[in-house]
């Protein structure tokens, strides 16, 4: 499979190009309105294009991306630590919410499939 290329362009003309097997982009809207008190929420979207991230490295990959983004955009170590903590709480709550709708059989099947995928990746490199 060929590489994926994304060009991000700011209205001031600044451009950044990203290349790789997979590109994940997030957009956030209404931050200005939120800060001015005109909006009660911030709108966000995501796009994923390219190769699927393999199951055995998915949590580490996404976790590292999110953590790195938070560290770079938080301004200082204290704020980054706070933001990382808050995001972890949000993710934990979402995890519980998602899992709460599963039956015991669905949970068992998911574990079996995940273990199988990890073993295939480790043993066969697939």
Describe the structure.
The protein is α+β, with helices and mostly antiparallel strands. 52% of the residues lie in helices and 22% in strands. The protein is built from 4 helices and 4 strands; from the N terminus they run βββαβααα. The protein has a two-stranded antiparallel sheet. The mean pLDDT is 88.
Tally of separate helices = 4
Q: How far is the N terminus from the C terminus?
A: 15 Å
Radius of gyration from the alpha-carbon trace, in angstroms: 18 Å
Strand numbers in spatial order across the main sheet: 1-2
Secondary structure: number of strands: 4
How would you sum up the major sheet? 2 strands, antiparallel
Provide tags for this entry.
126 residues, alpha+beta, two-stranded antiparallel ribbon, two-stranded antiparallel sheet, globular
